[in-house]
Amino acid sequence: MPITLQENQVLLLDTNCPHSIEELGEGDIMISLVLEREFLRTDLLGTFAHESILSQFFVNALNDQTDHNRYVRFHAEHSRRVRRYFQEIMCEYYDPSSNAVAVLLNLLQLLFAELITVYEQDFIRRDENHGAVSVVPIIRYIETHYRTCTLESVAEHFAVSPNYVTTLLKRHTGMTYMQAVQAQRLGRAASLLRGTDRTVENIAHEVGYENLSFFYRKFRAQYGCLPTAYRARYHAGPR
User: Residue 238 pLDDT more than 60?
Assistant: First the structure.
């Protein structure tokens, strides 16, 4: 099936996806980046999956769409950043600085952060065109109000029933409402452990856990270790 890319659009092709490129027109410029699948999913997309349930949702959605359709198209025509990041990537690749590897990795992460934003806008637009309530604003609301919101308050905010919120979350994220809240709390806790020197008890209370033992149990189930070990492992860096 022919795909005509507009200016600034990006096409993500799965590994070993058969494709060909027709002759470009005068003035057309196409940039092709070849990334190993493991690098893409671990070093690029994987960096976003642990930041929030919304990031995790979009990373999973991108992976799922690539697995089934063999490609994802990003309608980035109006993104000022995509063009800028590609330009900087090309400049750094052909005229590398002394720290080129780190610079390129960070530029690629910025590029995919922007592509995830573009994908989010497309996702919401598709739902709205079908007259459906999009799960994305609901997830974003939970991310913002995870310390105080309830299933009922979320449903009331979006003028839908609690059962509808539950069904929507389960269908698109595989999580119940409470699992989504727990995932957001733990993700925020992990971020604070990585980025601050605040005590574990202080962080647990910050993200909404009054029972420290319960927090330890949930954190270990999510990350495979206790919070202090997680912090030590993160600051130790790769070996």
Answer: no
How many percent of the chain have pLDDT more than 90?
46
Name the helix (H) or strand (E) containing 60.
helix 53-69
Q: Which amino acid, one-letter code, is at 124?
A: I
Tell me if 85 sits within 8 A of 107, measured CB to CB: yes
- 212's enclosing H/E stretch is helix 212-223
Rounded to the nearest 5°, which phi and psi values hold at 54? -70, -45
pLDDT in tens, 150-203: 999 999 999 999 999 999 998 888 889 999 999 899 989 998 998 899 999 999
- For 5, phi and psi rounded to 5 degrees? -85, 135
Instruction: List, in order, residues 6 or more apart from 162 with CB less than 8 Å away.
Output: 151, 152, 154, 155
d(CA 45, CA 10): 16
**Cα–Cα distance, 58 to 38 (Å, whole number):** 17
Calpha distance 140→154 (Å, rounded): 11
Find the radius of gyration of the CA atoms of the chain: 20
Rounded Cα–Cα distance for residues 10 and 18 (Å)? 17
If one counts every other C-beta atom within 10 angstroms of the C-beta of residue 147, the result is 13
Backbone angles phi, psi at 233, to 5 degrees: -65, -40
As a dihedral over the C-alpha atoms of residue 232, residue 233, residue 235, residue 236, rounded to 10 degrees, the angle is 110
This prediction has a pTM of 0.68
